[in-house]
Amino acid sequence: MPDPATAPVIEFRDVSFRVADTQVLAGLTLQVSSGETLVLLGRSGSGKTTTLKLINRLVSPTSGEVRVNGMPNCEVDVTRLRRGMGYVIQDAGLFPHFTVERNIGLVPKIEGWPKEKIRARTQELLQLVGLAPEIAARYPHQLSGGQRQRVGVARALAANPEILLMDEPFAALDPLTRDDLQREFLLLQQRLHKTVVFVTHDLREALRLGSRIALMEAGKLVTVLSPEEFVKSTDPWAAAYVRAFGDGLESAAKRGTS
């Protein structure tokens, strides 16, 4: 039997996904270790978001197997599976008619937490993501884009899941806010050590945030490299990304690991 301490938290075993005549993913084999941030990097249509959705069974593979904590995820109750994962998307995906406190407390409420525990957890998380306590009573439309994303991260962390799935969560933000949230994400990850799968098409973001970068193209996994390895890689696709993003990538990779 595999050692639980070293076994991957998430594993793709020769996974393919097809929609009608379109092959979205082909033969994906990939492992995600406990506590790492694996970045799925690639162009639009490369299969990044589909890969993410296969983890929490928003879609199911046409062939192959996705395993979570050693179990095929198709054998786990889908509600229980998803409650064990935080999910963060662009513009946070908050319920507009819920206050911030209700948005953050949604999963804990479903799990049957008492009101006082939910309120305390909400305040703890608001502090963790850099928001003032009074934000709890506001509605999403009363927040800035950066505040909404912070609330989205807080909601994903509310029930203390082991796994975070993040689908281009900072892509719609202005550069300064995006930089702030990337920095805060790194500090959070250093403190919480979640297992994170993070989707982006931005190489600088991948280098800054990722423990490893899984480069995808046309539904296939091209290579998996550390940030430092990526900027020096002779792989044609990785080298093309480095050329496209220009100078300063080495420092971005080093900053992400500091």
Describe the protein in words.
By secondary structure, the chain is an alpha/beta fold. The protein folds into 2 domains: 1-84 and 163-172 and 192-258, P-loop containing nucleotide triphosphate hydrolases (Rossmann fold); 93-161, no CATH class. It has helices at 48-55, 78-83, 100-104, 106-110, 115-128, 145-157, 175-192, 203-209, 227-232, 236-245, 249-257; strands spanning 10-19, 22-32, 37-42, 63-68, 71-72, 85-89, 163-167, 195-200, 212-217, 220-225. The strands form 2 sheets. It has a 6-stranded mixed beta sheet, sandwiched between helices. The model has no long low-confidence stretch (mean pLDDT 90).
Number of helices: 11
Measure the end-to-end span: 35 Å
Overall, the morphology is: globular
Approximately what portion of the residues adopt beta-strand conformation? 15-25%
User: Helix and strand string, N-terminal first?
Assistant: EEEHEEHEHHHHEHEHEEHHH
Uncertain residue ranges:
none
- CATH third-level topology of the largest domain: Rossmann fold
Please report the total strand number as a whole number: 10
CATH architectural name of the largest domain? 3-Layer(aba) Sandwich
Mean pLDDT comes to 90
Classified in CATH, the superfamily of the largest domain is P-loop containing nucleotide triphosphate hydrolases
**Strand arrangement, major sheet:** 6-7-8-3-9-10
Radius of gyration: 18 Å
Q: Tell me about the biggest sheet?
A: 6 strands, mixed
Helix content: 25-40%
Number of domains: 2
Query: What is the CATH level 1 assignment of the largest domain?
Result: Alpha Beta
Class inferred from helices and paired strands: alpha/beta
